[in-house]
Amino acid sequence: MPRRPRGRTVLVCPQCGSPKITLIAGSIVGQVYHCAACDYVGSLVLEQDLPPEATEKR
Ligand SMILES: [Zn+2]
User: Fold this and answer.
1) Greater pLDDT, 33 or 7
2) Residue 14 belongs to what domain range?
3) How far is CA 58 from the centre of its chain?
């Protein structure tokens, strides 16, 4: 299967859309993420594509 080598992805909260998602636990059933913005905890997170030129800008 072809893999598109463009940019990278960022995890965002499904509730508030914040990218402040941290992985707090991993198990055989999946990962558990925590959102620092709205305190959401769950295994469901959204993956968003980042444009290649938006990397590491300060
Ligand atoms: Zn959130």
Assistant:
1) 33
2) 8-52
3) 20
Give pLDDT tens digits for 15-39: 999 999 999 987 787 889 999 999 9
In a domain, 45, yes or no: yes
Residue 58 lies in a domain: no
Distance 35 CA to ligand 1 centre (A): 5
CA-CA distance, 33 to 16, in Å (whole number)?
14
Instruction: Tell me the two tokens of residue 12.
Output: 């965002």
Residue 45 alpha carbon to ligand 1 centre in Å: 9
pTM over 0.85: no
Residue 3 within any structural domain of the chain: no
